[in-house]
């Protein structure tokens, strides 16, 4: 899995699965709302897109109030389970 | 005992061969997608609609760096819009990861200077593209770019 998110770290915006999970442990989310969720299936792959509003605090307890759009790529594994292999998030209204 | 040992050696050899063939196939796919990624940008610079028709999957979605979502039709309409003019465009740092034989994701940096829909945009964006293998032809199912520098 890979994550691209320019808000997270401008020097190194591409995260591995382990790095992504580590950031999720640091940030404390208080709310998350998805909207305009769309999914298109291409055989054993699928693309999901949407917008999200996130609120929480970062590692230094600084408030986070984010309005982002995202694209996720999912793949159906041999076991039949769908797994997210990549996500790209970016701020809305740049 | 000798028969068992021979069978074991054959199984190990075949497994190694299959693993090697699989690695080779994934490496080929990654290289092919890197080349297609460059072709994709070249086609965009030239407003080449035919390339986009062939290599954008039906159901394609693009999230551009100024916050719009576009369908395949929207993307092609933009290519046909003669007021959109590209002065320069370079991609770099292309990385490709394959997942099985039919899906791949590429990440890259795109720096461009263009007049798009009446707005001058000179910026560097980071992008993620999803590629799917449609009966032997790699097509882009999605692209999403975010601005990291510029206007």
Please report which band the strand proportion of chain B falls in: under 5%, 5-15%, 15-25%, 25-35%, 35-45% or over 45%.
over 45%
Major interchain interface with per-chain residue totals: A-B, 29 and 29 residues
Question: Major sheet of chain B: size, sense and barrel closure?
Answer: 6 strands, mixed
Strand order of the largest sheet of chain B: 2-1-6-5-4-3
The first-to-last residue Cα distance of chain B is 73 Å
Oligomer: heterodimer
Unreliable residue stretches of chain B: none
Structural class category of chain B:
alpha+beta
> What letter string, H or E per element, gives the SSE order of chain A?
EEHEEEE
Question: What average pLDDT do the residues of chain A reach?
Answer: 85
**What is the total tally of β strands of chain B?**
6
Evaluate the radius of gyration of chain B: 20 Å
Which range best describes the helical content of chain A: under 10%, 10-25%, 25-40%, 40-55%, 55-70% or over 70%? Answer: 10-25%
Q: How far is the N terminus from the C terminus of chain A?
A: 26 Å
Number of strands of chain A: 6
Specify the number of helices of chain A.
Answer: 1
Mean pLDDT of chain B: 87
- Overall morphology of chain B: elongated
Return the structural class of chain A: mainly beta
What is the percentage of strand-forming residues of chain A?
Answer: over 45%
**How many helical stretches of chain B?**
3
3D structure, described in words:
- The complex is a heterodimer of chains A (94) and B (151).
- Chain A is mainly beta and 94 residues long.
- Chain A contains one helix and six strands, in the order ββαββββ.
- Chain A has one helix spanning 17-26, and strands at 2-4, 14-16, 28-42, 45-57, 63-76, 82-91.
- Chain B starts with a helix and ends with a strand.
- Classes of the chains: A mainly beta (94), B alpha+beta (151).
- The interface between A and B is medium-sized, with 29 and 29 residues.
């Amino acid at each position: 899995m890979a994550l691209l998110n320019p808000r997270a770290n401008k020097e190194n915006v591409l995260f591995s699965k382990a790095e992504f999970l580590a950031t999720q442990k640091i940030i404390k989310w208080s709310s998350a709302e998805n909207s305009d969720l769309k999914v298109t299936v291409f055989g054993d792959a699928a693309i999901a897109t949407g917008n999200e509003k996130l609120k929480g605090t970062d590692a230094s307890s600084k408030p986070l109030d984010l309005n982002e759009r995202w694209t996720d790529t999912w793949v159906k594994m041999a076991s039949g389970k769908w797994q997210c292999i990549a996500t790209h998030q970016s701020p809305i209204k740049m | 005992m000798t028969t068992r040992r021979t069978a074991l050696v054959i199984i190990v050899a075949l497994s190694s061969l299959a693993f090697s063939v699989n690695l080779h196939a994934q490496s080929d796919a990654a290289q092919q997608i890197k080349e297609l990624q460059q072709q994709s940008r070249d086609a965009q610079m030239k407003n080449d609609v035919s390339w986009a028709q062939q290599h954008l999957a039906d159901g394609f979605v693009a999230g551009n760096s100024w916050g719009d979502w576009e369908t395949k039709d929207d993307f092609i309409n933009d290519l046909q819009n003669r007021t959109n003019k590209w002065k320069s465009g370079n991609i770099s740092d292309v990385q490709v990861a394959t997942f099985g034989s039919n899906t791949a994701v590429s990440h890259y940096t795109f720096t461009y200077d263009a007049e798009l829909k009446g707005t001058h945009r000179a910026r560097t964006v980071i992008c993620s593209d999803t590629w799917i293998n449609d009966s032997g032809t790699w097509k882009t199912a999605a692209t999403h770019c975010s601005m990291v520098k510029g206007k």
